[in-house]
Task: structure prediction
Amino acid sequence: LSVWSNVQAGPPDAILGITEAFKADKDPRKINLGVGAYRDENGKPYILPSVQKAEEIVLASVPNKEYLPITGLPEFTRNAALLAYGTESTPLKEGAVAVTQSISGTGALRIGGEFLARHYPKSKDIFLPAPTWGNHIPLFRDSGLNVRSYRYFNKETVGLDFAGLKADLEAAPEGAIVLLHACAHNPTGIDPTPEQWAQISDIVKEKKLFPFFDMAYQGFASGSTTKDAFAVRHFVEQGHQVALSQSFAKNMGLYGERVGAFSVTTADAAEKARVDSQLKIIIRPMYSNPPVNGARIANAILSNADLYTQWESEVKGMADRIISMREKLYNSLQKELNTPGEWGHIKSQIGMFSFTGLNPSQTKALAEKAHVYMTHDGRISMAGLNGGNIEYFAQSVDKAVR
Ligand code: PLP
Result:
């Protein structure tokens, strides 16, 4: 008898399951809108030209393969923090931001979860928006936090349930942790407005909640890295101490290179040094030190003015293509096909994803009859649409809802 004979088969990953079904489908019209990775106008993965140049620069410097320090490449973490907090950030100027390189956004969130579970003195409760990125729930649970939720999505309006969000944060126990998607909320594509962020900041202050920002899409939402950092910078300006997860998977297209950063703002340089020491104690037994290649690439872009400018325009190019797909899809459904329902949310949502409002039976029909694959909650990756498939997609949605 094998020692593993009692191991039960777990459920397959919801999103990777869609990719399997898509791969098995032989119809030439098939479309995969499940995966959260950017695709170009031809439906192909996109390597940013600025990233290609950065790779050449890194290679030309003939770097060795030595281990990085536990908290990663120092130039990279400094520049990543600058990108997020901005050059005018007071805690950055004061040397009071503790930052470590991480295994992309997921790793940053996990380091953050572990750090809060060990060292945040006020609460073990973390409030996540409903819905949220599916991986947040097991990730924070496995970090040792109690996962709770606050209202975020209004099914009726396919918009933000701002009243519900405020009521739930106001009712949260004092000191609880609140996870905020900094921009391009996944899966809904719905972000608070700057005015709403200001109100959220006020509630967080009044209830002494602790804000933990997940910024997986800086630049990807609006096309501007500054605009997309509004929420984080506003909270810091308002005097909040924050935790922040950053990913360079989407905005630099460095998915498999696993480049990210986790940071916390502290009172002063001495406190930062103490926090740094505890971050090292968390990281060392998990994976010792992070991979070096992606951080070098990202840092080559962040530290070179010309490449940085080029990168910013390439991020904007990706965001703009997605925004133009939203425009086209809205026009097809609302104006050309007169598809039943109101489709304005397709245009007002932002970032990689759109919550279409399609229900599970409609998404099932789309997969089975039209070879169009998306998550059962009706979320589509806008990046999977292009000039070659958007008409067919709109017609398929039209059929599915009639
Ligand atoms: N957070 C959110 C909201 C995401 O959508 C993602 C990726 O889809 C991540 C974090 C982490 O991604 P990665 O670990 O690839 O950086």
Notes: The chain has a mean pLDDT of 96. The pocket of pyridoxal-5'-phosphate is lined by residues 36, 104-106, 133, 181, 186, 214, 216, 247, 249, 255, 260 (CB under 6 Å). The first strand starts at residue 31 and ends at 32. The first helix runs from residue 14 to 24.
